[in-house]
Design brief:
Distance between the termini: 23 Å
Largest sheet: none
Bound molecules: zinc ion
Shape: globular
Structural class: mainly alpha
Order of helices and strands: HHHHHHH
Number of helices: 7
Number of strands: 0
């Protein structure tokens, strides 16, 4: 899913657990925020999420400008104290997309550390538990489920 969705899930996990069982909650936040990525990315099947950038497609560009701007706003607004909850919830994207793929580009080796990517594991998790979800990744209307989820998460954050 989009970075903003992972950020908001990380904020909720940190906010709830730290207030309930601080300081032991720190360990639970780390574990749950990390594995929340598996659940959130599995649900991404019903959201607009094309594998490769679609620079020729105005809809794709407009959507990504909006969703990345919103992610930046959430990141800045909730940075203190939620930077680490957001960071751990997004860690798998940072590791796979930024670290591994970034170094791959620099090294010009498309297979570098391929075995150590985590998203293929998430794909297996999704196939096992969420095969029943429709695949809307290429459907423009699938921006709606992600928008609804973002609103629900924001409401939860407002209430806690
Ligand atoms: Zn991901």
């Amino acid at each position: 899913m989009q970075a903003i969705t992972h950020f908001l899930v990380g904020i909720i996990i940190q906010a709830v657990l730290i207030s309930l069982i601080s300081p032991l909650g720190i360990i639970l936040v780390i574990v749950l925020a990390f594995f929340s990525h598996f659940l959130v990315d599995s649900l991404a099947k019903v959201t607009y999420h094309l594998k490769d950038p679609q620079w020729h497609d105005k809809f794709w560009i407009a959507y990504h400008i909006i969703i990345i701007t919103l992610a930046a706003v959430v990141l800045v607004y909730f940075w203190v104290p939620y930077w680490w909850g957001m960071g751990i919830a997004s860690l798998i994207d940072i590791y796979d997309w930024m670290f591994i793929r970034g170094i791959r580009k620099v090294k010009n080796d498309p297979l570098w550390l391929q075995k150590y990517e985590i998203h293929p594991l998430i794909d297996k998790f999704r196939t096992k538990f969420f095969a029943w979800l429709p695949d809307w990744n290429a459907k423009r209307y699938a921006v709606v489920p992600e928008a609804i989820l973002i609103v629900i998460l924001l409401v939860i954050i407002y209430l806690i």
